[in-house]
Structures are given as C-alpha cells and as structure tokens.
C-alpha cells in the first residue's frame, strides 16, 4: 500500500514530462519560425535594409568574371598577393586622400538636401534639431578621422627611412577605414534623409516642454533676467505653430495628426509624472495647447483646409475631456474650492464658430455645435457627479460656483447659437435642435441628484424655447422632426424624473406655433403621443393625470382663439386640433381611463369646437393645405 501511495502522486508529473518532451521539438520549431518571420518583417519593413544596398551585384560579378578570365588565361606568373613596396604604399595613400577629399562635396550636398527637407516639414526647428543628428556627427567624424589618418600615414611613410611593420599596419588600416567611409556614405545619408522627414521629430520637439523650458521661462520671461526673444524663438509651442501652419498650407494631414497625438500623449505623461517629479505643472501645458489650437484653426479656415480644421476641433475636445476627467489635478495654486468653469473652452469654441461662419465653412460649423454638445454632455455625466453637485432648490439666487457655471454656460451657448441667426445660416438650426434634444435625454439618464436634473432641464428648456421661437419667426419651412427637439425627452422626464417642467415648455411652444400659423399635424401628433404615454402610465403616478389634463386644457385653450372669420390655415389647424383631441378621447377606454375629471375635461373641450361643421364645408370646397399625420 505504501509503495502505491508513493508512486501515484508522481504519475501525473511523469506524464507531463513525457508530453512535454514529445511536444518540445514542435514548440522549438514554432519558436524559430516565429523569430524568423519577425526578423524578416523587421528587415523588410522596419529597418528596410534593401534601401541601403546601393551596389549592383551583376556589375560586380561581371567585373570579377572578366578579371578571373584574364588572370587564368594571360597571367603566367601565377597568383600574387603581398603588401606593396614603400613607394607604392605612399602612392596609394596619397591618391586615397585625394579621392576621399572629393567625397566631401557629395556629402555636403546630401546634408543641404536633408536640411531643406527638414526645414520644409519642421520650419525653424531645423536650426535647433537638425545639426545635432547622430548621422551627421557620424559621417563628419568618420571623414575627419579618415583624412587625419591618411595624412599621418602619408607623412610617416614618406619620412620613414625604411619599411617597417608599423607603417604597413597604418597603410592597411587607413585603406580599410577609407573603404568603410565610401561604403557608408550612401546608407548614412539615406538614414539622414529619412530622419529629416520623420514625424518623430515632432515628439522630440514636444518633449522639450520640460523642466529646462520652465527654467528658461522663469529666467527670461517672468524675471526679465535674460533674452526674451531667445526663449520665444525656441519655445516648443511657437515652433509647433509654425510647423502646423506649414502643414495646413500643404494639406499635410500626417503632420497635423502627429502634433495632435504627440501633444495629448505628452500631457498625459506630464500628468502622470508630476506627483513624483514635480517638474512642471500640467496645467501650464494645457493652456499652451489651447494657445496652439487658437493659432492653427484660423489658418485652417483661411486655407480652406476642412480636414485640418476638423482635426483641430477634435483635438480641442479630447484635450478638454482629459482636463474634465482629471480636473482636480489641474490646480497649480492648490485652491481648496477649485472647480471647473469651462470658460476657456467656451471662448475657444466661440472663436472657432465665428470664424467658420465668416468663411462659410458649414461643415465645420456643424461639427463645432456637435462638439459643444459632446462637451456639455461630458460635464453633465462626469463632472457634476464627481463633485456631487446638488442644486440648492430652496435658494432663489444660488451663489455656489457650480450653479453659476450652469447659468453662465447656457448664457454663452445661447450667444453662440444666436450667431446662426445673425449670419442667416438657418439650416444649422438642425444641429442646435439636436443639441437640446440629446441633452434632454442625457440629463434624465445622468447620475445627478433630482434637484440638479430638474434645474438642468429648466435651463435647457428655457433657452431651447427662446431659440426655437427665433427660428420660427425667420423660417417659412414646414416644422419637421429635424428641427423640433421636443417629444421624446418629455416622455422620458415624465417617467424617470416625474417632472412636468419640460412638458410645460413644449405646450408653450405648441401655443406659440399656433399663434404664428406654424402649427401642423406633426407637432399636434407629438403632443397626442405624449397624451397616450400619460394614459398608459396613468395609475403609476399622480403627475400623469396633471399632465394629461394640461394637454387637454391646451387644446381647449387654443380653439378659443379661432373665430368665425378665420383664415383657411387657421380653419385647418382648428380641425386638426379637434380631430387629435378626439383620438385622445377615443383611446381612453383602451387605456382603461375611468377618472371622472379627465373624462369630463376631454368631453367639455370637444364640445367647444363649435365651428367644426362650418369649417369642414368651407375647406371641402377649397381644398386642404396642411398634411395630416396619423
């Protein structure tokens, strides 16, 4: 029994070892195959070794073949290989020195070409970075070293009284170095030309925004104890503005992408490193990046480079998103009541929007409105829950910073959106309607307190109504879903927030459209759908009864404005109101509505439509204008 107990636990291990030995050759084979293809990829695609091979093998083989034939057929003395005489060594060394000197001009021409390429892509950064290239240092050092070695070799051989081993070794070494120099010229200059257009130079430039930059800034700018122009000329942001400007004019998308990604990556790195290194606060770089975008965007608009303009807008949004998600760390003065106010972002977006409108960049304008929506959604979903913002409901004029932030933001958003009417770009109102419509849903679904949600809905609704009324007065087009941002948000608010504030805003717009002769079947149908929604959830909350009564009362209120001598459009609207109110009454049994107040209200309202038969006869003779929606 003991022997069995001792052997049983070892059997699985033995099996594993045996299986491992069986599979070992296959695993080793797979490992080498994987390494082979990995090295092949690096050689062909990363290092691109073939580009450095500038010799033609067929020419070399042809020459070698001819020499071999001549040596075989005509050379009667046999093979000969020996170190040449002293005079021959001296002759070869002097001619090699002259030959190498000729290559200086070739190398200088390649360096000038590389410098021009570097300057084209990176502007004045070429004077800072180009001549520190390791390839330039390598080729110049090798040239100088080889020429000094050849001069020394020639001098030693010429002055030497007799041939010795040291002189022979100098001769052989100098010839080897000269051959290496000649063979390395083309590959080195290819690498130099590659590096001249490598966008990694942008990352190197951005990385110069570090502790050394901070010292230079304090000495030259703040303390006025140095050369202010010298600091500004070498400032990374100044150089990035110049590089970005040139890239925009050349429609060089790759450079713009490199600037965008490099700046964001460096900001994230600074943010991660600051608690440990305490080198330079990321808030400083954040403001410098805003300076960068504010300088590049007008250039993109002026040059009609829409792609560059859109990338700058997206860059601005990504920058602000990182700031919002980490706003507590962007507090260089360590204020106890530090909060996010969004002022800088709003200023930048207003500048962008105004510039886009002035140059008729409609696609860019739409993107800016969309960007503002994404930004404010981010604030609602991320920032307010993070600071646990709870709107002080009992205060008539709240003085807390977050409430002021909400009020000032909607005020500035309203000013920005009113530019659409100033520049008569009414088609952009579709984006504005989408802005408020999406925000209504986002506010309801956010994780904020009910007081905050209701306050945001009130702000959102009041400015929406104001802008919608201005749009209505300026347009003659039919009201459709693309410009009517109500309905869906109202039902969501009734379900989750139990608030009728958005409904009241919608009913105000409903009446405004009626008074201006713009009320159509689509809008009436939306309000009817809300009534259906309240009936479907009638027993869940007492607020649904109030909402339904408000809708019925609004229908009754509007019919009273229509007189016997109404226009044909008013007559059609009157009949639509009666018809859709009838639909509401018709579906009440389906939703099991038995409340006496509601039933009495809808019956009374329908009884007030006394002109139904007369208007129907009048319009049957003339025809109808408004399209009905069922």
How would you sum up this structure in a few lines?
The chain is mainly α and 630 residues long.
Description:
With 630 residues, this protein is mainly α. Mean pLDDT is 83; it is low at 1-9. It has 26 helices and no strands. It is elongated. Among the domains are: 21-47; 53-197, no CATH class. 75% of the residues lie in helices and 0% in strands. Helix 18 runs antiparallel to helix 19 (450-474). The longest helix is centred in the first third of the chain and has 37 residues, at 10-46. The N and C termini lie far apart (88 Å).
Distance between the termini: 88 Å
Percent of residues in helices comes to over 70%
Mean pLDDT: 83
Give the DSSP E fraction (strand runs of 2 or more residues): under 5%
The class by helix and strand makeup works out as: mainly alpha
Dominant shape:
elongated
Provide a count of the helices: 26
Order of helices and strands: HHHHHHHHHHHHHHHHHHHHHHHHHH
Uncertain runs: 1-9
**Strand element count:** 0
Using the CA coordinates, give the radius of gyration: 40 Å
Major sheet size, sense and barrel closure: none
């Amino acid at each position: 029994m003991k022997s069995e107990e001792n052997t049983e636990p070892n059997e699985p291990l033995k099996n594993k070892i045996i299986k491992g030995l069986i599979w070992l050759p296959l695993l080793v084979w797979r490992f080498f195959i994987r390494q082979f293809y990995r090295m092949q990829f690096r050689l062909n695609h990363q290092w691109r070794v073939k580009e450095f091979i500038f010799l033609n093998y067929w020419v070399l083989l042809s020459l070698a073949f001819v020499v071999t034939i001549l040596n075989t057929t005509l050379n009667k003395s046999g093979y000969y290989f020996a170190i040449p005489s002293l005079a021959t060594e001296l002759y070869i060394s002097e001619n090699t020195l002259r030959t190498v000197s000729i290559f200086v001009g070739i190398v200088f021409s390649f360096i000038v070409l590389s410098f021009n390429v570097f300057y084209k892509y990176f502007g004045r950064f070429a004077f800072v970075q180009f001549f520190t290239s390791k390839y330039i240092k390598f080729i110049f050092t090798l040239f100088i070293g080889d020429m000094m070695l050849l001069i020394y070799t020639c001098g030693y051989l010429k002055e030497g009284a007799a041939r010795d081993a040291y002189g022979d070794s100098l001769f052989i070494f100098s010839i080897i170095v000269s051959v290496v120099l000649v063979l390395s010229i083309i590959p080195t200059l290819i690498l130099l030309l590659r590096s001249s257009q490598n966008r990694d130079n942008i990352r190197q430039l951005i990385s110069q925004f570090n502790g050394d930059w901070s010292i230079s800034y304090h000495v030259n700018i703040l303390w006025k104890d140095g050369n202010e122009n010298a600091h500004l000329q070498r400032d990374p942001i100044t150089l990035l503005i110049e590089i970005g400007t040139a890239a925009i004019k050349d429609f060089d998308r790759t450079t713009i992408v490199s600037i965008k990604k490099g700046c964001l990556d460096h900001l994230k790195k600074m943010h991660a490193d600051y608690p440990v290194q305490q080198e330079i606060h990321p808030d400083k770089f954040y403001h410098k990046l805003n300076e960068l975008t504010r300088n590049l965007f007008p250039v993109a608009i002026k040059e009609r480079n829409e792609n560059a303009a859109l990338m700058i807008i997206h860059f601005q949004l990504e920058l602000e998103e990182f700031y919002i998600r980490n706003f507590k760390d962007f507090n260089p003065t360590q204020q106890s009541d530090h909060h996010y106010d969004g002022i800088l972002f709003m200023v930048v977006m207003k500048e962008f929007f105004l510039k886009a409108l002035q140059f008729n960049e409609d696609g860019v304008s739409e993107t800016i409105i969309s960007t503002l929506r994404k930004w404010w959604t981010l604030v609602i979903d991320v920032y307010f829950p993070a600071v646990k913002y709870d709107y002080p409901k009992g205060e008539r004029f709240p003085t807390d910073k977050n409430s002021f932030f909400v009020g000032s933001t909607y005020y500035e958003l309203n000013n920005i959106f009113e530019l659409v009417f100033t520049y008569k770009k009414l088609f952009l109102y579709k984006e504005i309607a989408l802005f408020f419509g999406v925000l209504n849903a986002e506010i309801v679904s956010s994780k904020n307190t009910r007081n905050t949600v209701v306050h945001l809905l009130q702000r959102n609704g009041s400015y929406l109504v104001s802008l919608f009324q201005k749009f209505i007065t300026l347009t003659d087009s039919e009201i459709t879903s693309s410009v009517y941002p109500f309905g869906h948000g109202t039902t969501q608010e009734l379900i989750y927030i139990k608030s009728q504030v958005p409904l009241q805003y919608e009913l105000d717009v409903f009446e405004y459209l009626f008074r201006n002769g713009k009320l159509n079947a689509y809008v009436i149908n939306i309000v009817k759908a809300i009534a259906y929604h309240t009936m479907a959830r009638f027993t869940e909350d007492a607020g649904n009864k109030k909402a339904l009564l408000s809708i019925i009362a609004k229908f009754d209120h509007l019919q009273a404005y229509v007189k016997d001598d109404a226009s044909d459009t008013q007559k059609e609207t009157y009949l639509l109101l009666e018809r859709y109110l009838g639909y509401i009454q018709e579906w009440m049994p389906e939703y099991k509505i038995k409340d006496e107040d509601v039933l009495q209200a809808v019956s009374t309202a329908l009884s007030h439509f006394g002109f139904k038969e007369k208007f129907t006869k009048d319009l049957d003779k003339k025809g109808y204008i408004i399209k009905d929606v069922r």
